[in-house]
Specification:
- It is a single chain.
- The chain is built from 15 helices and ten strands.
- It is an alpha/beta fold and about 350 residues long.
- The strands form two sheets. It has a six-stranded mixed β-sheet with strand order 1-2-10-7-8-9, sandwiched between helices. A four-stranded parallel β-sheet has the order 5-4-3-6, with helices on both faces.
- Helix 9 crosses helix 11.
- The structure holds ligand AN7.
- Ligand AN7 binds next to helix 4, helix 9 and helix 13.
Amino acid sequence: MTWRGVIEEYRTRLPLGADVEAVTLLEGNTPLLETPRLAEALGLDAHVYVKWEGVNPTGSFKDRGMTVAISQAVSEGSAGVICASTGNTSASAAAYAARAGIDAYVLIPEGQIALGKLSQAVMHGAKVVAITGNFDRALELVTALANEDSITIVNSINPYRLHGQKTAAFEICDALGRAPDQHYLPVGNAGNITAYWMGYREYHAAGVVPTLPRMMGFQAAGAAPIVVGRPVTAPETLATAIRIGNPANWRAAETARDESNGTIDAVSDAEILDAFTLVASVEGIFAEPASAAAVAGLKKVNAANRVPASSIIVCTLTGHGLKDPSRAIDQCPPPPTAADHLGAVRKVLRL
Ligand code: AN7
């Protein structure tokens, strides 16, 4: 049967009234790919899979939550939605709002979001404001605006967002026939790690899977409030998607970590860039830098001998690398040029 989007596929496990119509772009049903060349490159004796979320309709995992949040908002008669964003949330909110025929308002930190993400929000007709402060300040302003006007906030403090995002955990269990042993993912505003843990717990409680994974979250070293134990006032990382100093779901993410006997740790920008390049070059999967934090985290945990042999590992690759092509090109030397004849081209290609 053809895929109907995460609401119709998992409606019985979502807190939506039967009368709520799905606003959908047929998100979800993303590939769970086994990545043996990546496992080998990391020196891992384990089954490594990636949940490739960059192939969602707007190129990130945010679509899973947005379909649920915007469907609910429309059913409540909301005329518009608002969010603060490091980029992907705004791209997704703008797309689903366009699909629903309602307004989208977006606050972004000026100069700190990848151009692809900004172009999506603009193309989908969102009203975008770039503010002088960072993401955390934008989220404070958005919260105030949503309270004063009757527009719905669609950041991950909106509970419907997390219910939508938990469907990725369902899909992984459905594909593997069990839960993984360890699940790695990047942590920014900490909604996704919270949502996955909710999804795994719900499947476990319903008897669909007999075990639960350890939740392994990774922040960028310059934006690692949960790791250092206090808000970071001036977060810095080249992985702009996770440049967040005071995550909205901080406590819930700590609960996911503690209940699952997992970890929330930090990886450096250099480690993130290494993983970014590695996944693209050995597996043909072009994920964005923030996504690579999960893989960098797996490498770090393995180096500390904390990945048991033969275990089943899943890394969520949260967003598509094409959102920020200049970051990728900066990683590579510019291509050599050649005159337009065979000899010259052969010489450059060493063929
Ligand atoms: C590619 O778009 O917060 O820990 O405003 O875009 O659930 O926040 C994006 C976050 C990981 C972190 N990977 O997820 C936003 C925003 C990518 C992201 C995260 C984000 P959360």
